[in-house]
Amino acid sequence: MTRTGNSSSSAPKTAPYDRIAVIGSGAWGTALANVAAVAGRQVRIYGRNRETVDAINNVHQNTTYLPDVPLAPSLSATTQMSQALTGADAVIMVVPSGAVRKVAAEVNNFIPPGVPVAVCTKGIEPGSGLLMSQVAHEELGHVPVGTISGPTFARETALGHPTAATVAFEFSHQDRLDPYASPAARMALSMSTGSFKTYISDDLIGVEIGGAVKNVIAIGCGMMTGAGFAENTRAALITRGIYEMKVLAEALGGRRETVTGLAGAGDLTLTCSSQTSRNMSLGVQLGQGRRRADCFDGRAVVVEGEANARSIVDLARRVNVSMPICETVDAILHDGAELNEAFAALWTRPIEGEPRTLDISLRNPARPSLSNLNGE
Ligand SMILES: NC(=O)C1=CN([C@@H]2O[C@H](COP(=O)(O)OP(=O)(O)OC[C@H]3O[C@@H](n4cnc5c(N)ncnc54)[C@H](O)[C@@H]3O)[C@@H](O)[C@H]2O)C=CC1
Ligand SMILES: O=C(CO)COP(=O)(O)O
Q1: Does domain 207-372 have CATH number 1.10.1040.10?
Q2: For residues 60 and 75, is the Cβ–Cβ distance under 8 A?
């Protein structure tokens, strides 16, 4: 899209969406709802948990998922999905990946015609290999479906720390003729505040692949960190992780450059750098030798990389793309592969060209040896 600015009186105008329904009252749904409310929108959250909904309405806090974060007093919440969706002119859906199809089907019962939906879940559906927007689209029919994605820890976003994210929708023919009136531009404007900076993209595939794959790589970074490896190792995984995102995005019709943006490299950097990330944290705990059932002190926590590693690897195989880091993480998580052995095998794969254009592959003479590491 050409950037022409929007400042002169003759420049095309973009109208924000006035009334936004947020479906899902977890950490990220609440944070996005708060952004929209701070941006001046009328926002209603649907949540299935009565206690959470009451807390948002009565004490302006999500005491379950974002304790001690003050929310905009204008935010309201309901346990009735129909109430949240009535009169909405845009919808933001934020539930875990395993619930997207079911919740989208419920949304379809109440959503006004033509209203755009941003599905802000990160994952790939098992079996179908569909992106979350595609799953929602199958249930919702002919409404524009996109996403908002980037390096965005919910708590930091809700506290107003400067944060940037990409708003992506596929562009119709009409959107290309008038990008200022596109759902992506209108949603980006609707969600812009002094601390939440939005960018616009028409590459929904690239954006969603970045968001889904980074979680698996973050588990891998966590595993290596927990097992005692250091910064060199983490940087290698991040960089080669970006490469895995690129090849998968491209094979599915997305663009490589999207993956170097906020929703790819940006989000990967965030989640591979901090145990605030549930994915990184799970990896660290497993790398330290904890049993899965004991991680997070036994609490049920949404870890999308764990839920989606297999579906990502399956999708990559289907489009003939090699993603060795994701395959390694998946094998450890779901096939019982031994962590040190699996990473040692990753490190002794054939020697290849780093630019994709250099078509070379050498048998690697090194013997897998990472398991000999004893720490400093
Ligand atoms: N927390 C974060 O910092 C960010 C999360 N995300 C993504 O957002 C998605 C949701 O994550 P969180 O909000 O963090 O999870 P969360 O665990 O904080 O909340 C999940 C919410 O979904 C609701 N839910 C689960 N199943 C449901 C169903 N069948 N029907 C209705 N509601 C249902 C739960 O009641 C809960 O309110 C994930 O895909 C995650 O990757 C994306 C960016 C940032
Ligand atoms: O996606 C996120 C930040 O952009 C949140 O990461 P986790 O799900 O790993 O906590």
Answers
A1: yes
A2: yes
